[in-house]
UniProtKB/TrEMBL annotation:
Domain PARP14 second RRM, residue spans: 1-80
Domain of life: Eukaryota
Organism, scientific name: Cathartes aura (Turkey vulture)
InterPro entries, alphabetized: Nucleotide-bd_a/b_plait_sf, RRM_PARP14_2
Gene3D superfamilies: 3.30.70.330
Name of the protein in question: Poly [ADP-ribose] polymerase 14
Pfam family for this entry, one: RRM_PARP14_2
């Protein structure tokens, strides 16, 4: 899959409006399973995941030039691949070995963990994998 992040999405913007905007620009259909949209209101963003073969860079460029997107101040960028994820709501005093085994379990991704950096003040941890496929 190919992922594009939409930024500056105001809380008043509904997901159905974004879906139509993506459909208008891409020519694809959410109903047909060509893509999905996940709203992330905490950071005023949305994630568009395309299931087929689409030039994400071209889509982002078209969205950034689209007058409706400009009206809403919405911008698009391709999501860069990363080897690390942030896990939140990690109970205090959770052993890093437990976090490693959890993420290496097939039910939870099954990827090889190379590092766990705990952030006890934030009840979080940064988990770094051997390659970027483990954090999907």
């Amino acid at each position: 899959s190919t992922i594009v992040v939409l930024e500056n999405v105001q809380e008043t913007v509904k997901d159905c409006m974004l879906i139509m905007l993506v459909e208008n620009i891409s020519g694809l259909s959410e109903d047909d399973g060509d893509f999905s949209v996940e709203m992330i209101p905490e950071i005023r963003a949305a994630v568009v995941t395309f299931t087929g073969n689409i030039a994400a860079g071209e889509f982002a460029k078209k969205l950034n030039q689209n007058h409706r997107a400009k009206q809403q101040n919405i911008t698009a960028r391709c999501l860069e691949l990363t080897k690390s994820v942030r896990a939140e709501n990690v109970p205090p005093n959770t052993p890093s070995d437990y976090i490693t085994v959890y993420f290496e379990n097939k039910k939870n991704g099954g990827a090889q963990v190379v590092d766990v950096q705990q952030l006890p003040d934030e009840d979080a941890a940064i988990i770094t994998f051997n390659d970027h496929k483990g954090n999907a």
